[in-house]
Amino acid sequence: MGSGVRTTAGILKQLVLSAAAVAVFAGPARAEDGYDLWLRYKPIESAAQRQSRSFATQIAGQTETPTLRAAAAELSRGLAGMLGTAPTVSGSVTSDGAVLLGTPTSSSEIAALKLGLDRVGDEGYVLRSTTVNGRRATVVAARSDVGVLYGAFHLLRLFQTRASLDNLDVVESPRVQFRILNHWDNLDGTVERGYSGASLWDWHKLPDYLDPRYTDYARANASLGINATVLTNVNANATALTAPYLDKAAALAGVLRPYGIRVFLTARFSAPIEIGGLKTADPLDPAVAAWWKTKVAEIYRHIPDFGGFLVKANSEGQPGPQDYGRSHADGANMLADALAPHRGVVMWRAFVYSHEEPDDRAKQAYSEFVPLDGKFRDNVLLQVKNGAIDFQPREPFHPLFGAMPKTPLMMEFQITKEYLGFATHLVYLAPMYRETLDADTWRKGKGSTVEKVVDGSLHGYRRTGIAGVANIGADRNWSGSHFDQANWYAFGRLAWNPSLSSEAIAEEWTRMTFSNEPAVVEPVVQMMLRSREAAVDYMTPLGLHHLMGRGHHYGPGPWVEGGPRADWTSVYYHRADARGIGFDRTATGSNAIAQYAPEVAAEFGDLKRCPEKFLLWFHHVPWDYRVQSRRTLWDELVVTYTRGVQSVGDMRKTWSTLTPYVDSGRHAQVAAFLTIQEKEAQWWRDASIAYFKTFSKRPLPKGFAEPAHSLDYYKALEFPHAPGHH
Amino acid sequence: MGSGVRTTAGILKQLVLSAAAVAVFAGPARAEDGYDLWLRYKPIESAAQRQSRSFATQIAGQTETPTLRAAAAELSRGLAGMLGTAPTVSGSVTSDGAVLLGTPTSSSEIAALKLGLDRVGDEGYVLRSTTVNGRRATVVAARSDVGVLYGAFHLLRLFQTRASLDNLDVVESPRVQFRILNHWDNLDGTVERGYSGASLWDWHKLPDYLDPRYTDYARANASLGINATVLTNVNANATALTAPYLDKAAALAGVLRPYGIRVFLTARFSAPIEIGGLKTADPLDPAVAAWWKTKVAEIYRHIPDFGGFLVKANSEGQPGPQDYGRSHADGANMLADALAPHRGVVMWRAFVYSHEEPDDRAKQAYSEFVPLDGKFRDNVLLQVKNGAIDFQPREPFHPLFGAMPKTPLMMEFQITKEYLGFATHLVYLAPMYRETLDADTWRKGKGSTVEKVVDGSLHGYRRTGIAGVANIGADRNWSGSHFDQANWYAFGRLAWNPSLSSEAIAEEWTRMTFSNEPAVVEPVVQMMLRSREAAVDYMTPLGLHHLMGRGHHYGPGPWVEGGPRADWTSVYYHRADARGIGFDRTATGSNAIAQYAPEVAAEFGDLKRCPEKFLLWFHHVPWDYRVQSRRTLWDELVVTYTRGVQSVGDMRKTWSTLTPYVDSGRHAQVAAFLTIQEKEAQWWRDASIAYFKTFSKRPLPKGFAEPAHSLDYYKALEFPHAPGHH
C-alpha cells in the first residue's frame, strides 16, 4: 500500500480501487492451462511473502543491452507475480534488499565487488549475498550479459521453490557448450513425431509477424540455459535455405538472440542440386563446395551469429556423400570448411544404417564412424543417439560413446515421446537420460561414464554438446501435456549440468509447475520417478525393443513383419520362436557386444552377469530360463507387463488425491490422460502377451488375467491418422 | 460486499482478503489474446454498472436439464464478469431485478405469464420486462430449452453492447432451419483452406479426452444460434464413418448437444467400397443401398440426434453417382432413404463441374441441377455457393437461386478467406454475404431476392439452411486473426436473421469484441464496412475473377495458364488480349446470362446497364472503353487497383490511432497484419498491372506509380508451403 495514505477512509478507498483494478485486469474466470510452463510466478503463500519481499525491494543496475533488459524484465515480472508488488528499479543499489544485476562492464558496483568471475566462463554467473553501498543486496553477476540472464532465472527459481535466500554464494557455469533443441518441424507446419499440435513456427507469416510465443519460447529456454535451436527437421527441405526462408529464420533469430539462443538449420545434402541448379552434390566437386561457401556466406548476411548445420545424411533415404562414393567425413568436412570462416559448426548425425542391412542394425553406426575418428574438421561434432537403435524406452548406451576420442561426440536425446506413449502417457524422461549418462564405457578404465564423454572431460574434447529432439508445438501447453513440460525442463537442466539427479530436477519442476505444498511435491515426484520404469514394463520389458506399430509407432505391434526392410519390423528385434525370445548379440549371434570395451562386453555378453533390464537386448533366452526372481522368463514377462499396467493405475489413483491442490483445468487434463495411459498400458500388455504366447505356448502364471481380446483383434487395429507421422 | 460486515476494520479486512483472492486468481499479467471471442464479459464502466446491476440481482428458475444449466451458467458467468459480482441463484423470483429463465415446462412462473410462446417456434424466445411474484423481473422464456439458451445469450448481448434493459419486449425466432458450419477438417489434423492453425478436433485423443475448447466452441456457436456442424472435410475420407471414428464423433456430439448443436458428417460416396468391402458404390445397386442403411443405423446408435450427411460428389475428383451413369438425384436419394427413418437429411453440394469442360464453368451447376428439380427426396437440400465460380472476392449471385422452386436450396458461404487474403487481410465479409442475399433473382417478379429463396419464403421450401465454411482452428484466437472472428460472428447472425444489416452486425461485434467507446466503435465499424470493397479493388476489380496463384491460392497469379484443365487457370477467366479484357458471358459468348431470369439477363447482358462491379464478369471490354468515370477501362483498372492499396493504408492509419483504446496484445497483432495486408495489396496491384500491361500496351495514368518490380519477378515467386493447401 502507498505510504502516503493516512486515514482509514483513504485506505479503504485505495483498497477498493486496487481491488477494482485487479478485477478489471483479470476478466472472467480462466483456468490455468499450462501456457506459463514453470515460469508461473504465482503469489508466494502470505506467511512467507514478507520474508521473500525483504530480498527483492529493488532491481538495481544499468540494463541497457537487450539481454540485460530481458533479465531485468524477467526479474520484475517474476517478483511482481510472486510478491504482489513489483520491486522499484534503480541504476544503483539504494535500499536494503536490492537485487543488483550486471557485468563488470555494465556496473561499476559489480566491478568493485571482485567476484572472481573468471571462474564462470562465458555463460556462467555468480549469485552472492553481500553489501553494496552499505545496503544489503543480492548480486547476480556474470562476465557476459547472457550469464546475467541465466543468473536472474536461477534467482527466480530460488524464490519459486522457496529455497533460502540467505547467504547466497552460488557459482554456476554450464558443463556443456552446445545445449541445443532439435525441432523436427516441417515448413508446411507439420511436425515429424510431434504430439503437441502444429509447428510453433508460423513460416507463412514470418518474417512480418512475430508471434509473442516466440519470445515466451526464448524465455523458457533461457530459464534452463538452452542456448541453441535447430529450427527445421533433420529430414530436411532445401527450401529452408532459399532467400525467403532465410529472411524468416533471421526474424526468428532476432527474437531469440537477446535470450542467448543461436539459430541452426538443417542442411539437405542435395540442396546444391535442388535449389542451386547444379548437377551433383558430390562433396569433393569444387563447384559444390563453392556453392555451399556462397550459400553459407548468404546465411551469415541474414543471421550474423548463425550457429551452423545439423545434417542427417545417408540415413533413411536422405541424400549424402555416400551417394557419390564419399565418406561421411568428406561430406561433413566440406560443410565445415564453408562454415569455419564464420565460426559455424556442423553437427553430423551418426544415426545411419545401410539400405542393404548387411549386419545387425545396432552395429552399423559404430562400424561406419569409428574408422573415421580423427578425420573430421575441428568444427564438426558427431551427434549420437543415446542408444544404438532408435530412442526405445530402454536401450543400453550407444557403443560409439568412448570409442571416438578424437571426435567430439554430442548426445542426442529425444524429448518428444515417439516411442513412449506420445503426449498422453506420463513418462518422466530424466531417469532415462540419467541411465545413459551414468553408463560406464570403461574406455579409460572404471568411471569412464558417458557423462564424461559428453561433457568432454574424458577425451578432452574442445567442443561439447547435448541435443534434444523437441516436444514443443502450438498446443496451448506447449508440449501436448502438462507432464511433458517436465521433459523439456529436465533436458535443459541436464544439458547445463549433466550430473543433476532426476529427483532434484523433478522436485524443482514440480514446485514451480504445480505447488510447493509437500502434499503435492512428494507424491508427484514419486510418480515421476517411477513412471519411466512403468512404461518400459508395459511396452518393452527385459530388454525387448522396437515392438511398436508400423510407421506411426502408436501402440503395440510385436507381430510387424515383412515390408521394405527387415530392420523396420518387430520380428527382426524380438526373434521369438518356440525355444525362446531375444536378439543374440553375443559372439554366438551378431556379436554387437564386441563394439563395447572388454569389461562391458564381458558383462553384457554373459547371460548371468547381463543386467536383466538388457537381457533380451543381448541374448536369445529360453522361455523356461530362470531369471533372478526364480520365475521362468515367460512368467517374468507376464508379471512385468502386468506390473507396468498396475503402476499406471497407481499413478492415476495418486493423482486423484491431488484434486484439492491442483487447479481444476490442469488436474482434469492430467486425470484424463492417465485414464488413457492406463487403457493403453493394458492394450500393450494384452496384445504383447497374446502375441508372444503363440511362441511360448505356456499358460499365464496363476492369477494373471488373459488378454481381453484375441490376437487377431489387436492385429486388426489400424491408426491411419496417428499424429506425428507424415 | 457481504451485508454482515459492520465495522470499518471488518470492511477493511474483507476488502484485503478479496483483493488478495483476486490477485491470487489473476496471476501474472496476461494480455488479451482473442480466446474469449465476443464473449469477453469485461466489467461494465463503473458509471453504468449500478444501473446494469439493477437488472441482474438474481438468476431465477429451475435449471435441471443440461441446456438450461448451460443457459444459467452462461448468465452467471457473463453477469459476474460484467457486474463484478455474480447474481444470486434461486428457484423462483424473490427479488427485484431478477432474471427468470425457463420454459412453461420448467417454470410455473413462466407458464403463468402467458407469453404467447407459440409465436417463437422450436428455437425462438421472448425477452420480456415484467413483474413476477410482485418483483421486477426480466423473463427469458421459450418453448424449448435451447430457445432459453439463445435468449440468455441475447440478454447478455444487451448488457455487453450497453443497450437499454428497460421495457424489453423482444420476440425472436430464426428464419432459417439449418444454421450450419462446414469444417473442411481432415482426420490427420490439417484443414483444407484453413488459416488458423491445425484442426480444432483432436481426433487422436478422442473419445477419451474432451478438450475444454470444444465446450467454448459450442458456447460461441450457441451465442449466435448456429445449430449444426459438419465435422469433416467435403473432400471426404471414408475412415470417418468407421466405428472408432463414430465413437470419436459421438464424444464431440455429447459436448455440443447441450448447446443445441447437431453433428453432421461428410459421406464419401465410395465408402461402400473403401470400408464396406463392396465392389461398387452404384446408388441403384441394392447391396450399396443396404450397406448405407446399415451404416446409417450404426451412426444413429452412436449419435441419436445425428443430423445427416454433407456430400461433395462428382466434383474435383470426388467419387459420385455419375461414376455409374446415375444422376445426382439418384445418389442423393439413396442416402436420403437411409437417413429418413432417423429424420436425418442430406445436404448435397451443387458445386460440380465437368472433367471435360464442355462449357463455361459458371454454367455447369445450373445445367446439371435444374433438370433435376422435383426429383429429390423430401429430406434432401441442395447446397449452393453464393456465386457460380468459387467464393471469389466478388461474384454475381448463383443462377440456381430462384431456378429450383421444388428443391430446397441452401446457401453455402465461405467464412475462411481462401481467396480473400487468408488470415492476415482485414476483410469483413458481411457486405459480401449481404450483396448475395439482397440480389434480386426476379424469378417471381421484382423483390424475388436470394434471401427469400434461402429463407424458404419465395418457394415455400419446407426445409431451409445456410452453411458457412468455417474459419475456426486451433489458433489461440480461433480464426487466425482477431477480425476474422467477425466473419464467424456475421455468418452466424445472418444465418439466424438474413435481413440484418452489415453495419448493425459490425457494431454489435465491435462493442463486444473491443470496446463500447465511440472512439473505437465508429472507426472500427467504418474500417470493417469498407474492407471488402478494398480487397476487391486490389485483387479482382471490375468483375475480374479467379486470378490467384495456382493451387495454394496465395497472392496474384493472373498469368497462370496450362496445367491439367483450362478452368483452373487465370487466363481462362480474364481473357485479356490486345483488344481488351473480360469473359463474354452474353449471347455472343458463353451466354451464361441466359441462366438468369430475363430481367436480370437483360441487365447483366447489356454493356451499358451491367453494374460496373460485374463488368468483366459478363463482358469482354475494349481497353479504351469509357466507364462511368469517363476514364478508359485501362485507366480505371489502374485507378481501382491503386485505390484498393490506399484503402488498406487508410485502415492501417486508423488502427494506429486506437492504441489508447485497445489492449496491447490484440492491437499489436492487428497492426502487424494490416502492415502485411498493405504490402500484399501493393503486390496484387503491381503484379496485376505489370501483367495486364503486356496486353493493354498503354501507359499508366499520370501520377500512378509503375509496378515496383518486373513481371518476371512476380511470376518467379513461389509459395510451396502456403497454408491450407494439402
Automatic annotation (TrEMBL), chains A, B:
Molecular functions (GO terms): alpha-glucuronidase activity; xylan alpha-1,2-glucuronosidase activity
Pfam families: Glyco_hydro_67C, Glyco_hydro_67M, Glyco_hydro_67N
Record's keyword annotation contains Hydrolase: yes
GO biological process, one term: glucuronoxylan catabolic process
EC number from the UniProt entry: 3.2.1.131
All residue ranges annotated as the Alpha glucuronidase N-terminal domain in the record: 37-155
Record's signal peptide: 1-31
Keywords on record: Carbohydrate metabolism, Glycosidase, Hydrolase, Polysaccharide degradation, Signal, Xylan degradation
Glycosyl hydrolase family 67 C-terminal domain segment(s): 480-703
Residue ranges of domain Glycosyl hydrolase family 67 catalytic in the record: 160-478
Reaction catalyzed: Hydrolysis of (1->2)-alpha-D-(4-O-methyl)glucuronosyl links in the main chain of hardwood xylans
Active site: E316, D390, E418
Superkingdom of the source species: Bacteria
Family recorded in the similarity comment: Belongs to the glycosyl hydrolase 67 family.
Name of the protein described by the UniProt record: Xylan alpha-1,2-glucuronidase
Species name: Povalibacter uvarum
Lineage, opening ranks: Bacteria, Pseudomonadati, Pseudomonadota, Gammaproteobacteria, Steroidobacterales
